[in-house]
Design goal:
This protein has a domain at 1-78 and 182-243: Rossmann fold. 37% of the residues are buried. The protein has 243 residues and is α/β, with parallel strands linked by helices. A hairpin with a 2-residue loop joins β1 (3-14) and β2. The chain contains ten helices and nine strands.
């Protein structure tokens, strides 16, 4: 299989405190790869270092054979990114934001079709600030899809979505995978991870404590379902039992 993302011994610290320690992974073409872990485990820092929005202290990263720091302009045209917290003005209309964002890409997708696919056609003339949390999340996914990307990075993509919309997003992402698009995602929904991910990496205190398939994660744990296995890996099972 063709390697699309290559991470080798990635390290990043803040004021001497390690946030990511010695992470290595290869992600293949058409693969959905899940980056999992409790809050503060290092998921966001790992993703930001891979994308080149943060500079690692040590280690190397490549996306599509390019250095995300040195080749940022070229990768910008080939990579879609959706973060949970979108930094967009509330006083701009949805259609205007999509139009302005599409103008940044050489061959953008038709944002009107994407808005329709995510149930936002009627919101094109609404201000971004008037959207519900779930509608904003769908809009951020639309914006990530505008460059017609070969690789996508999705951070907690279905947070705030109702069950039906979540399922529709899953179906849409499965279709992207079928087209050979590589997806890296973070999620706290274990059913979502099971439904979408070919492989996962579980982080704890900045270190990789598991990398493989969901089935392998369950097999290597004392449990028979993935949610309990995940809690066991991250030492959250006691919290889980006391709720």
């Amino acid at each position: 299989m063709e390697t699309v993302i290559e991470v080798n011994r990635l390290c990043k610290a803040y004021k001497g405190v390690p946030a990511v320690e010695d992470i290595s992974v290869s992600v293949f073409s058409g693969e959905v790869f899940g980056l999992l872990g409790a809050n503060g485990a290092g998921k966001s820092t790992t993703m930001e270092c891979i994308l080149g929005t943060k500079k690692q202290d040590r280690g190397t990263v490549s996306i599509l054979g390019m250095d995300p720091q040195k080749d940022r302009r070229t990768l910008f045209q080939r990579v879609g990114v959706q973060f949970q917290e979108g930094n967009y003005q509330d006083k701009i209309k949805v259609g205007e934001l999509c139009d302005a964002s599409a103008s940044l890409y050489e061959v953008p997708q038709d944002y009107r079709m994407l808005l329709k696919q995510f149930g936002l056609s009627e919101k094109a003339n609404s201000l971004v600030g008037e959207l519900s949390g779930g509608q904003k999340q769908c809009l951020f996914i639309v914006l990530a899809l505008l460059p017609n990307p070969e690789v996508m990075f999705l951070d907690e993509l279905t947070t705030g979505l109702d069950v039906r919309t979540r399922r529709n997003v899953w179906k849409f992402l499965s279709g992207l995978k079928g087209k050979g698009i590589t997806i890296v995602l973070t999620s706290h929904f274990m059913d979502e991870v099971e439904a979408l991910c070919d492989r996962i990496m579980i982080l704890k205190k900045g270190k990789s404590i598991f990398c493989g398939t969901v089935e392998e994660a369950v097999f290597q744990s004392p449990f028979e379902n993935f949610e309990d296995a995940y809690l066991w890996y991250t030492n959250e099972e006691e919290k889980h039992e006391s709720v």
